[in-house]
Design a protein that fits this description.
disordered C terminus; 4 domains; 33% helix; Peptidase_S1_PA; coiled coil; Thrombin, subunit H; alpha+beta; 717 residues; Rossmann fold
Length: 717
């Protein structure tokens, strides 16, 4: 560990000596802490109470007893200081470092339950000012629980200790959203921490002095504009967003004490460490005053009067926390750094190198730093700065905004309407965004464009946020409709496949199946397509076909062109035997394997014989031989001779002229006897589909929707 608690660029990220675990008197883990001095530990005020006795455990296994000496309420920093009864081992303490906080990669070392020595968790501080007490927002790579409250937060590049972790909105629940109290906020709320903190303050001493009689010497209009700029994209106490412009140039003459006092007052209020505890002491109307900037609104404020561009570059590099042992020039190291700054530079026109300084400021602007530049004279340097850093970039910003709005109201809107014509979806928010985008485009291209030509782009940040929101809503709506369109294609393909499956299996068209198919087809073809209704219709058809081609055929209704009652007032399915049940002269019915020799024959069951009046009676097994002979004769009469074409064309001449021959039934091919209908038998499982009404000839062609067979098919029934 380096002096001061940092690790340097080559640190392997082991357990730091300053990281401690905090236990209450009953042995329960209260949270984590940071050893900032041999006799002092900082932790979260959410975990301990004033005067509570605490045990502090170190990473090497040692421990010290302590007592909570001072607690800052959550609304005033949320930090607690624990005084140890015995000093900690020498060299174990770390010190806090003043650095810029927003947009920085950090690491948090805590003690989750189940991890004895503790471990590191990655995170990133969010840009812009944080809470009213100076804390910064932190996004973590994984949720951290209450046992991490009070843990140390270190810079991911150097390992320097930046501050202390505070829990998120719900202190008792794990969360990936948390807060970090930076070193400067700790010093402000806990003055004794100034002795444990190193690094230069964010505001130069020459900018800290306030003119006498400041409360009466305030320019409210200028103060409000400064507060809005320091607020950035965040909302103020009046609910309005701040000025999101990246560069602001102000002319504050040396003899204008009112304007100068307003500027310095705003700098002190925007600093985390120098901000007065009572806003009234700085001549304001309180924290709710829209002319009061939020704490953390600035990261660095310097006076470059009589100084060079290289001096400013080195000052910026130090504030960013870049390693001092890097031999590269500070200008190059700044360009490679990730964190950004909100920088105030006063006396730009009175520096030793105004031209080189403007070039450096242009580089800082290119890396997304926010700049407030203060000039003292209306000189050529002032005019160049306005042209190079404000007017031209604002015009480019305005052109980019107009281009985005034209893209929203042009190609993106056309794609939206094209998809909306195909499928119906919930697009109310997208339609509202499109209307607002068109209105904003008209406004930006009108009066705002005239102002931009003179270097002014009021509400630029608000307009850009609105345009991004409108574009996001339209893209989300288009993506949602694309998914519906793809689903519509899937349903159409599924419907076609099931239609082919049904046609391959069916002998005749079924009215119920045809109605289900037409309903699904019409719903899918409708524009815009109602996807829930279409999906339900396709599901009904596919379920019908699945049941049809399964083990048992559903009663789907009459076949097209057929009387539901069948010839003679009987249902066709009841009048005909199941496929494979007809007896033949060679053996048992098709699909019947005959008697099983392994099963002993039992007593004969009584049979049901039809009588002349259709009344069955029981008969014993003694007449089996006569019945067998009679059955063969009846079978010879019942079975028509097959014509070469595959259908039942005609009987033999002897059958036609035989006296007493019974003509075939009008539609069934069986004798018209007064016999009761045979009970419906389930289909043979070896047959994929049970045709109704008639059997297809073996050489019949494929079924067609018009009811005609294919090539080689017999005549239609």
């Amino acid at each position: 560990m380096e002096a001061g608690g940092g690790f340097g660029g080559g640190y392997s990220w082991g357990a730091p000596a300053w990281a401690v675990r905090v236990r209450r008197g009953d042995g329960e883990v209260a949270g984590a802490g940071v050893l900032v001095a041999p006799g002092w530990v900082l932790t979260s005020a959410y975990t301990v109470a004033q005067g509570e006795r605490i045990t502090v455990e170190f990473g090497d296994g040692g421990s010290r007893a302590g007592i909570v000496q001072e607690v800052c309420p959550p609304e005033h920093g949320g930090i607690a200081a624990i005084r140890l009864q015995q000093p900690a081992p020498a060299g174990a303490a770390g010190s806090l470092l003043r650095l810029s906080v927003p947009g920085r990669r950090v690491r948090v070392h805590g003690f989750p339950r189940g991890h004895g020595p503790g471990r590191w968790t990655d995170g990133t501080t969010r840009p812009g000012p944080g809470g009213a007490d100076g804390r910064a927002r932190l996004a973590l790579a994984e949720p951290l629980g209450p046992d991490h409250a009070g843990a140390g937060v270190a810079d991911a590049l150097t390992g320097d200790l930046l501050g202390v972790l505070l829990p998120g909105a719900d202190p008792g629940q794990p969360s990936r959203e948390a807060h970090v109290v930076p070193a400067e906020s700790i010093v402000r709320h806990l003055p004794r921490a100034a002795g444990w903190t190193r690094g230069r303050k964010a505001v130069d001493e020459s900018l800290q002095a306030l003119p006498p009689g400041l409360p009466a010497l305030i320019d409210p209009h200028f103060g409000r504009r400064l507060a809005e700029w320091f607020r950035g994209d965040s909302r103020g106490p009046d609910g309005r967003h701040g000025d999101g412009s990246q560069v602001k140039i102000s002319l504050v003459r040396t003899d204008d004490t009112v304007r100068l006092g307003t500027l310095r007052r705003s700098l002190l209020l925007a600093d985390r460490e120098l901000r007065p505890h009572s806003a009234e002491s700085a001549g304001t109307g309180g924290a709710d005053d829209p002319a009061v900037p939020p704490p953390g609104g600035l990261d660095l404020a310097v006076d470059v009067t009589g100084r060079t561009a290289h001096w400013l570059a080195q000052r910026v590099a130090d504030r960013l926390g870049l390693p001092a042992d890097d031999p590269a020039p500070p200008e190059e190291r700044i360009q490679a750094a990730r964190p950004t700054l909100t920088l105030v530079v006063a006396g730009v026109d009175e520096s030793d190198e105004p031209g080189q300084l403007l070039d450096l400021l242009a580089q800082l602007r290119a890396r997304e730093d926010r700049l407030l530049l203060v000039f003292r004279h209306d000189t050529e340097t002032y005019a160049r700065a306005r042209s190079q850093l404000v007017i031209e970039p604002n015009q480019q910003r305005h052109a980019a905004l107009v281009e985005r709005l034209e893209r929203i109201t042009g190609p993106l809107a056309r794609a939206f309407y094209e998809r909306r014509a195909v499928v119906r979806a919930d697009t109310d928010r997208a339609l509202d965004a499109l209307v607002r985008a068109e209105a904003l485009r008209t406004r930006v291209a009108g009066t705002t464009g005239v102002l931009t030509a003179h270097g002014r782009f009021p509400d630029a940040g608000r307009y850009e946020r609105s345009a991004r929101r409108y574009e996001r809503r339209l893209r989300e709506a288009n993506t949602a409709m694309d998914r519906l369109i793809e689903r519509r294609k899937e349903l159409a393909g599924r419907l076609t496949a099931y239609r082919a499956l049904y046609q391959a299996a069916a002998v005749r068209e079924d009215l119920a199946a045809d109605a289900l198919y037409r309903e699904a087809q019409e719903l899918l073809a409708a524009t815009p397509c109602e996807m829930p209704a279409a999906e339900a219709a396709v599901a009904r058809y596919t379920e019908f076909v699945d049941a049809w081609t399964g083990d048992s055929r559903p009663d789907a209704g009459p076949v097209a062109g057929e009387d539901p009652a069948g010839p003679g007032g009987r249902r066709v399915s009841d009048a005909e035997p199941a496929l494979g049940e007809k007896a033949t002269a060679e053996g048992p019915p098709v699909g019947d394997a005959g008697p099983n020799p392994a099963v002993p024959a039992g007593p004969s069951e009584p049979e049901i014989e039809p009588r002349a009046h259709g009344i069955p009676h029981a008969r014993g097994a003694g007449a089996d031989e006569q019945d067998t002979a009679r059955g063969h004769e009846a079978g010879a009469e019942d079975e028509p001779e097959q014509a070469p074409g595959g259908g039942a064309q005609a009987r033999t001449a002897s059958q036609e002229s035989a006296p007493g021959a019974v003509p075939p039934a009008p539609g069934g091919g069986r004798e018209s006897r007064d016999v009761p209908p045979r009970p419906h038998q389930p289909p043979d499982p070896r047959i994929a589909f049970h045709a109704r009404g008639a059997e297809r000839a073996p050489d019949a062609g494929p079924y067609r929707q018009d009811g005609q067979g294919g090539e080689g098919a017999g005549p239609s029934r």
